[in-house]
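Revision sheet: structure tokens.
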Amino acid sequence: MHVSVYDDKLQASSAAAADGAERIRQAIAARGQANIVVATGASQFDLCEQLALQADLNWNRVSIFHLDEYCGLPISHPASFRLYLWERFVRRLPVPPAAFYPLNGEGDAAAECERVGAIIRQHPVDVAFVGIGENGHLAFNDPPADFHVEAPYHVVQLDEDCRRQQYDEGWFASLEQVPRQALSMSIRQIMTSRAIICTVPDERKARAVAAALQGPVSPEVPASILQTHEQATVYLDQPAASLLTGGDGVMRRNDAAASPAPPRTAEPTPVDHSTVR
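Predicted:
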């Protein structure tokens, strides 16, 4: 795992997008196609925008998966991650992708996990773009996360901290409206990705970032599993990195220009509900 810290969240997201785009280009050059996972949520606004703007990237050779979706939430709801990905990423690409495989949580969630799971098994992931939740979750794998589920997707229970984060970010009008279950990519599936790019901005994530990156690897901090992935790169802004201690592979932005990183391979302030729509 490699950690880079930038002055602000736009710089961090831009660097993450450039890193991911280069890895996608390399995958296309090597195998004629690429498969990626794109995260959602307020922390990924800038990343999605910057990734869609990457030049000379043959998107019609890229298949797109996503991490998670609420159970029982219609695509018309502002918090729907299918809607998020379509509006903030897929429709902004200069050409259509090879395929887009959204998760539909409105019907039989277990069956949907099996359906999309069967597809992703045939599409090994080249780059997974992820974030870290305020409770340390990775995708919707809240603590204590199951590190051993082999299915690519599974149905999970959302804990109180996770649900409150969704409410505080402005996705729902009340805490009670936040669903209690979701479809989530499993930890083991995320870790099969050839590269993982994790973008985490904002001070409200600082405690989770410190626990995930410098604490023990534990299901109690699901994102801590990223420490074990050789091609995981974490992009932070200064506020998100504020509780990290020195060393442990942390590269500050001013050092990054002078020091070579290994093969490369963010969450904003609470969002006003009107901006989510």
